[in-house]
Amino acid sequence: MAYTPFTAQTLPARLAGVAAVTDRLGHDPAGWQVREVGDGNLNLVFIVASPLETLVVKQALPYVRLVGESWPLPLNRSFFEYNALTRHARRDPGRVPEVYHFDEEQALVVMRYLHPHVILRKSIVSGVVHPALAGHMGVFLARSLFRGSNLSMPADQAKADMALFAGNGALADITENLVFSDPYFEAKLNRHTPGLEPWVARLRADRDMKVAAQELKHAFVSKAETLVHGDLHSGSIMATDTDTQVIDPEFAIYGPFGFDIGMLLGNFLLAYFAQSGHEETPGARDGYRRWLLAVIVETWDSFSAEFRHLWRTERTGILYQHSLFDADPLGAEQALQSVMAGIWRDTLGFAGVEMHRRILGLAHVEDLEAIPDPARRIIAERRALALGRQLAVMRGTFKTTAQVCALAEHIEIGDLS
Ligand code: SR1
Ligand code: MG
Fold first, then answer.
1. What spacing in Å lies between the alpha carbon of 55 and ligand 1's midpoint?
2. Do 222 and 198 fall into the same domain?
3. Domain enclosing residue 61, as ranges
4. Pocket of ligand 1 (CB under 6 A)
5. What pLDDT does 163 receive?
6. What atom in ligand 1 is closest to the CA of residue 357?
7. CB 311 within 8 Å of CB 151
8. Nearest atom of ligand 1 to the alpha carbon of 41
9. Tens of pLDDT, residues 242-291
């Protein structure tokens, strides 16, 4: 059967012939409840429930759902998502939903239903704390990035994976335009909160910022360092009090170590500045703001500790090869410092441009969009634009996450000029 986008009515007939589904849901598709719940920018997402079990079915559409059929998008992103999910499952077991079935022709992945998990972004807008989040994400980032790179993989396998994921160029093209270029000129699909114009114009006239954004784009397209998730924002994480699941790696490609970390920290910083738009009285969310900053610190610290551990115990790839440093452990540590410094610098830059594009570009974030009072939203957005600019342009000058958090706090409480 040629590719067809399914509906809640047509999906059961297709799934009824799939053993991985009927083994779990049973053999009576007429008794299955199906709901389409996709609220992302690209795909259909169905929840399929029988009295025995519930599953999630994600199907790619041949166009960008957010925009419509005028923006075609290859269905094979589903193939890359499936391949990234299976690699992530091996590299950090238990941190991604289990895949039960992949149907390449229908661009469809059947996977575990995450329950009682919630989309992290929605949780953050509501001011909910997730105690395990930062530790889980730091370790996930270290394991997925280290184990997908030439620090760890046999060289032939790394090259094969680089070639495989290079096929996901259409999704990379979205990132290349939407993250690194469109926010900095009047691109057709850009939008911003009415009233923000003076600050948009100021940023677009900022030569240092434009150069920084292009340096970061240069890094994104040329540093094929590891398999990155490619779209690791708080909408790509589902969480409970004790569990964290990383979903939606359809943008997976070989890119810089710092890309996923930067995108995630950028989204935490956007959430930080958005809090003032959600609190009922000034200061009501002070504790939550502190928690968000602590998440940034702990995510980086956990990433850094696990990455350092893997460097010392699993460096089996062709980079900084063990045999070179057998008699020189201090040399290996010096090299590690240098690699970490590069990742940190890139991380800050990617965080900065991610913050900008979620305010100036096509794809915005609920954290800011859900602020009902436009005047308060503009204040939050101006603060985020200001920090994003500092992170991108001055990325070589920050030494610690504490410095980043201190600047965020300073911008939050200071006068905006
Ligand atoms: C046209 S797609 C817009 C955005 O949605 C995805 O989630 C990615 O973040 C992409 O940049
Ligand atoms: Mg997504």
1. 24
2. yes
3. 11-112
4. 41-42, 64, 66, 174-175, 178, 231, 362-363
5. 98
6. 11
7. yes
8. 5
9. 999 999 999 999 999 999 999 999 999 999 999 999 999 999 999 999 99
